[in-house]
């Protein structure tokens, strides 16, 4: 197989193998964790979570009570106990059914998916799991995920929507998102900004008009959008709220992104701005990435201790969920819970919600101030950048680098007290989790990955920086 011409099937096989290796071996920077999880690790999870204490928010349009915790079907478990986001193995439907039943038993009633999740099988798995229960016991959230310009025709978009109804085994969708608003794209050699892409994907082709009619007919109960990237596209839709009457919008929000999203990555927008604009317009908010792709569950050790000193029985991840849910215009927080311990931790946090106090809010802002001092790559391992035409394992490279940063194993000088150990952990760990032929050194800077990144990471630049750092470690020339 040519490294340059690796196809998607080969990539998925390799990704599944790499994920399995990561799950059973140390990365070189601490203990291994379950690959594919969002790392909702917890100090202790009560096995006696109440079934009648879920926190609900009221949909102002319908009056429906929506659970503040939503189940994201983005990282479903597979039969090999690896997340379907990183593996090409079959989804473990029996486990998905069990997790769904447990969530419903404890009051969680909103389930979110997309035609693009889990290699295209997420909606099917959700349809099986939920159809075993009365339709009035849950709300379905899915998306029109037309990312590729080849999918931007009216016929393809409407076909995707109708297929979602079929896969989900339902005659209506409770919450339908225009997916990925703000993402840029290349069309005929020209890069379109977020507003231009928005018009070509949804407006100029008549797709949005079709969806508005579907809402009038009741087959879509609530119509909204998920925002990634170019803030001009976000502002355009919010400014046209009087025309489209958005029922909700989804943004990335947590206590770090609140004020530092733009500092972490210049292409992002601070959640404080996004939340306040939606609130001013009376548009309820869905939240994605509540723990920043797992990074707020795996804080640097001294920051974890800051939180555990205050609430020793609470998980590090629970702080972000409590902080988000304390904001009154949040309708639901989506969490991709691969394993039962993730689900139980989140349920124990929000059944019921113990709102953050002003003092705790101040603590989290100090944690955020410290967090952004670390040179992390803002990658959430969404895999949208993959496969790389030259075989580079982009997400795993970034994950390994971030893990070393979080655990204090990045050196700026050979004179650092822990340089020898940091060097060993970075280099040995990197070779363990990423095959040499798939490491950053093989990036040629072609930029194919760039327009697909919802975090707007300058991927070739970051890969080059990591490879330069690795070469300096090898030569001990920091």
Give a verbal description of the structure.
The longest helix has 17 residues, at 8-24. The two termini are 36 Å apart. This protein is an alpha/beta fold and 478 residues long. It is 41% helix and 12% strand. The strands form three sheets. Strands 3-4-5-6-9-10-11-12 form an eight-stranded parallel beta barrel, surrounded by seven helices. The chain has helices spanning 8-24, 93-105, 122-130, 154-167, 194-203, 207-217, 231-239, 241-244, 257-264, 271-280, 301-310, 316-325, 340-350, 358-371, 394-406, 419-433, 459-475; strands spanning 56-58, 65-67, 69-72, 110-112, 139-144, 173-181, 185-187, 190-192, 220-227, 248-252, 285-288, 330-335. The chain contains 17 helices and twelve strands. It folds into two domains: 8-29 and 381-475, no CATH class; 56-371, NADP-dependent oxidoreductase domain (TIM Barrel, Alpha-Beta Barrel), CATH 3.20.20.
Describe the SSE topology:
Elements: H1 8-24, E1 56-58, E2 65-67, E3 69-72, H2 93-105, E4 110-112, H3 122-130, E5 139-144, H4 154-167, E6 173-181, E7 185-187, E8 190-192, H5 194-203, H6 207-217, E9 220-227, H7 231-239, H8 241-244, E10 248-252, H9 257-264, H10 271-280, E11 285-288, H11 301-310, H12 316-325, E12 330-335, H13 340-350, H14 358-371, H15 394-406, H16 419-433, H17 459-475
Parallel strand pairs: 3-4, 3-12, 4-5, 5-6, 6-9, 9-10, 10-11, 11-12
Antiparallel strand pairs: 1-2, 7-8
Helix pairs in contact: 2-3, 5-7, 12-13, 15-16
């Amino acid at each position: 197989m040519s490294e340059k011409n690796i196809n998607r099937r080969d990539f998925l096989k390799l990704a599944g193998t790499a994920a399995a290796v990561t799950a059973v071996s140390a990365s070189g920077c601490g203990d291994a964790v379950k690959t594919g999880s969002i790392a909702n690790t917890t100090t202790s999870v009560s096995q006696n979570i109440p079934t009648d204490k879920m926190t609900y928010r009221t949909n102002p349009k319908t009056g429906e009570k929506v659970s503040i915790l939503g189940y994201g079907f983005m990282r479903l478990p597979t039969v090999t106990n690896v997340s379907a986001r990183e593996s090409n193995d079959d989804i473990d439907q029996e486990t998905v059914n069990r997790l769904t039943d447990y969530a419903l038993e404890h009051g969680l009633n909103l389930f979110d998916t997309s035609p693009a999740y889990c290699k295209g099988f997420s909606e099917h798995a959700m349809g099986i799991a939920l159809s075993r229960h009365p339709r009035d016991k849950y709300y379905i959230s899915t998306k029109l995920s037309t990312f590729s310009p080849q999918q931007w025709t009216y016929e393809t978009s409407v076909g995707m929507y109708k297929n979602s109804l079929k896969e989900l085994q339902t005659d209506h969708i409770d919450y339908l998102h225009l997916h990925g608003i703000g993402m840029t794209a290349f069309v005929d050699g020209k890069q379109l900004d977020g507003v231009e892409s928005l018009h070509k994907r949804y407006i100029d082709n008549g797709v949005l008009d079709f969806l508005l009619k579907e809402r009038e007919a009741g087959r879509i109960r609530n119509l909204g959008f998920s925002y990634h990237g170019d803030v001009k596209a976000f502002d355009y839709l919010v400014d046209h709220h009087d025309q489209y009457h958005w029922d909700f919008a989804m943004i990335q929000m947590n206590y770090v992104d609140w004020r530092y999203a733009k500092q972490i990555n210049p292409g992002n927008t601070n959640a404080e701005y996004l939340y306040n604009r939606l609130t001013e317009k009376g548009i309820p908010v869905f939240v994605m990435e509540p723990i920043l792709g797992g990074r707020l569950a795996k804080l640097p050790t001294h920051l974890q201790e800051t939180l555990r000193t205050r609430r020793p029985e609470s998980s590090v991840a629970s702080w972000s969920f409590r902080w988000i849910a304390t904001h009154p215009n949040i309708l639901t927080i989506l969490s991709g819970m691969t394993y039962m311990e993730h689900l139980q931790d989140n349920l124990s946090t929000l059944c019921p919600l113990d709102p953050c106090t002003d003092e705790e809010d101040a603590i989290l802002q100090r944690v955020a101030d410290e967090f952004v001092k670390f040179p992390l790559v803002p990658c959430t391992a969404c895999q949208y950048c993959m496969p790389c035409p030259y075989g580079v394992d982009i997400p795993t490279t970034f994950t390994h680098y971030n893990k070393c940063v979080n655990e204090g194993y990045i050196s700026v000088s050979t004179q650092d007290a822990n340089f020898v150990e940091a060097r060993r952990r970075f280099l040995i760990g990197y070779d363990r989790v990423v095959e040499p032929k798939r490491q950053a050194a093989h990036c040629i800077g072609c930029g194919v990955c760039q327009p697909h990144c919802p975090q707007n990471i300058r991927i070739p630049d970051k890969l080059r920086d990591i490879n330069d750092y690795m070469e300096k470690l090898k030569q001990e020339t920091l």
